[in-house]
């Protein structure tokens, strides 16, 4: 389970990556869970338009212990994940996508329920927001890609059933605070 210190560590790492010219964003399940008022179990920092060795060097220079992983699922993957790094002692992953922009990476997520991102992180936890950035409103579960396995579809349906009652599905608001008086952190 993620606490405020873990989230701050992810914000700090995100700032470091951006300061080195890397396009990155916190997106996916962590952002989604915060939007619905649930404490996330881990944090994914999405990184695009760079190579594994570049990110590895940045982590090493900052004395961040991490274990690299590569995905080998044939020639191509429709979600476009190359691999990434699991931080040692923290529930934070840096995930590399073969995309030119973070928007392109988020568009490649398998379900609309995962198309949330934390924005305005430069303002800190209390000034950051979660924003839904998908094309299909989160009030209805939509497979953005058709290649999800039956077990993945089942897990996403279970997640949808758990989360949706926490918000009014017809609401037009697609943004929620991360911290402060109205956010979970």
Automatic annotation (TrEMBL):
It comes from Ectopseudomonas oleovorans. It comes from the Bacteria. The lineage of its organism: Bacteria, Pseudomonadati, Pseudomonadota, Gammaproteobacteria, Pseudomonadales. This is Poly A polymerase head domain-containing protein. SUPFAM superfamilies: Nucleotidyltransferase (SSF81301).
